Amino acid sequence: MASSTAAEPISPSNTRLGWIGTGVMGQSMCAHLIRAGYTLTVFNRTPSKAQPLLDLGAHQAHSPQALASQSDVVFSIVGYPSDVRSVLLDPTSGVLSGLLPGGILVDMTTSEPSLAVEIAAAAAEKNCHSVDAPVSGGDRGAKNGTLAIFAGGDKDTVHRLEPLFSLLGKVNYMGGSGKGQFAKLANQITIASTMVGLVEGMVYAHKAGLDVGLWLDAISTGAAGSKSLDLYGQRILKRDLDPGFYVNHFVKDLGICLKECQNMGIALPGLALAQQLYVSLKAHGEGNLGTQALILVLERLNNVSLAPAASSS
């Protein structure tokens, strides 16, 4: 089946999909593919997390290797670079030990660019293809199928995957292997400083006696408007700190960014500051909250609270 898809456009009738990692993002992304009619096999280290997808018609595999052996295109979206290495490259249980020649591996985890290059080389040795395609847009983007997808790898392979990517969001081809990861890391750098600006503005507005909700609406259509404001402004006010994207994973991403800055010999002080603020959340045991929980750091620093109960007196 892998050989037939090499010539034909990818469609539910000729392409079997595998998906590794059914967490906050993966759950919704998988559901779009199943609803589009694709045969999909899932693997998750915690099998119960895959149950909603099994209810939709997905099959379950007992290892990444077993999943790959019955898939033409395998997606992965897991936590850390070490997880990526384990599920894709492990010689006995990893995806590449089971993927047939002509198969395509699509890693959507935010990871190290050098690892993406390594995976692409390992895939090529087995006559397979690899694309690094991390995403931005959080849980809402995953649910709505509006993610920004940053793709690195062979251009023709990325183009072939368009029918699948279009179900998840908008794909942006960024260049060769690793370039998708570099694009996502630059995205995270931008988000980090934007989030610092948003929560600082909210604390300032609160301290100045403004109605913070009214203020958010007022600035949203001006030059200070941003996707971060749209996604998280009202969530912060409502004290909805549930993860669309985990603090723990953001700390991981920003750490990779700083490491790459060292490799490039560049100084990004805004990035370094944001990373320290997010590390302080993790130190307070708040790593499993969403990135909007940065408000907690600014509240502690300034001994204020924007929580609804405190502002309704």
- Averaged pLDDT, please? 94
Give the CATH topology of the largest domain: Rossmann fold
Gyration radius (Cα, Å) is: 21 Å
| CATH H-level superfamily of the largest domain | NAD(P)-binding Rossmann-like Domain
Instruction: For the record, give the distance between the C-alpha atoms at the N and C termini, rounded to a whole number.
Output: 65 Å
Query: What number of domains?
Result: 2
> What CATH architecture of the largest domain would you give?
3-Layer(aba) Sandwich
Low-confidence stretches: 1-6
Structural class: alpha/beta
Q: Classify the helix fraction into a percent range.
A: 40-55%
Largest sheet: 6 strands, parallel
Subunit organisation of the chains: single chain
User: Beta-strand percentage?
Assistant: 5-15%
What is the helix tally?
A: 16
Following the backbone from N to C, one meets helices and strands in this order, namely: HEHEHEHEHEHEEHEHHEHHHHHHH
Keywords: NAD, Oxidoreductase
Protein name: 6-phosphogluconate dehydrogenase NADP-binding domain-containing protein
Pfam families: NAD_binding_11, NAD_binding_2
Organism: Lupinus angustifolius (Narrow-leaved blue lupine)
Brief write-up:
One of its GO terms (molecular function) is oxidoreductase activity, acting on the CH-OH group of donors, NAD or NADP as acceptor. This protein is of the alpha/beta class and 313 residues long. It is built from 16 helices and nine strands.
